[in-house]
Amino acid sequence: MLPFANLAKDQALDWVGESICENVADALSAEGLLVLDREARCEVYRRMSLRQYALLTRATVIKVGEALDADHVIFGQFSVSGETSGKRSIRLAARVLDLTRLRQSVEFSQTAPLEDLASLQVSLAWEAYRYLRPQTARSEAEFKTSRQATRIDAMENYIRGLVAATQEQRHRLFTQAARLDPNYSQPRFQLGRWHWERKNYQVAADWLKQVAASDPHYRAAAFLLGLSRYQLGDYAGAEEAFAGVAKQIPLNEVFNNLGAAQARRDRPEALDSFRKALEGDESDPVYHFNVGYALWRQGEFDRAAESFRAALDRNSEDPETTLMLGRCLKRTRARSLDTRSEAGPRLKQDFNETAYLQLKQMLESKK
Length: 367
What we know:
The chain has 17 helices and 5 strands. A hairpin with a 4-residue loop joins strand 3 (about 90-100) and strand 4 (about 105). Helix content is about 55%, strand content about 10%. The two termini are about 25 Å apart.
């Protein structure tokens, strides 16, 4: 999904081109399509020295799509009329380019008052979705009613926050977007992530729990919510958040963190969760360590020692693992659970569902 070219005379409307790109991409992602993220697209634009919101030739669109290893590219432009009058209207025009067959769709166009930009983007997203998934059982009415209408001033602040030059500007603009529209989910995710990165865990949790289930960032928000609650000592809340993500995306890091929350609650299910993470990636010393930790707490010293040795085989410079191995060899039993123990279970901080979704989509396409 490329930012739409700004054919209007007012460069202050550049944010509209980014808004179309973001919101149509989010709508398609929510329907299960794998859409490349903004960071990947911006990096390709930078490498190719392309100006954002400029009108691209078909040849350039193809080069961008090939650089991103995309199957389809959605691109287009917008124009605004009545700039000097009290009410402006906007026209969106888009095409879908199939890079596997080098075939281009007919033009999809929509026109409406500028303040109806959100509804216009939903209509455009439906046209693109129907082209990409012609056999869909979804009706246009179902597709549109599942999309939350957003105030244009809130949308503008959110998009300006995405492209802001400084972190302070981003925070201010995202906060303003969230205040302008209490139902606007995307800035709430960005604010939650912003505060998580700064270790403001309570504030992060307050924002992240407001992210709607229909938001394409919902699973990432739930993962960060689990981490925030874990750091706050709310292990039951963390377990609930990680368990919800695990039901949708069976990633190793999710099972690992679910096990960590369960272990903090002294729940026997922790060992099964850690083993699921290990089955997915036996090369990661964190997963071996956590399996060993769970076994040690159960008094299974010999089996725990095997897991700690496996962790050291993969990372020999780990004094904590060496300490835990020593406890197993001395058959030192675990005492009452110390939530601040230096030898507690280890968390995974990164959540990347893209690879899983890519593999899932590839397997489904071969059926």
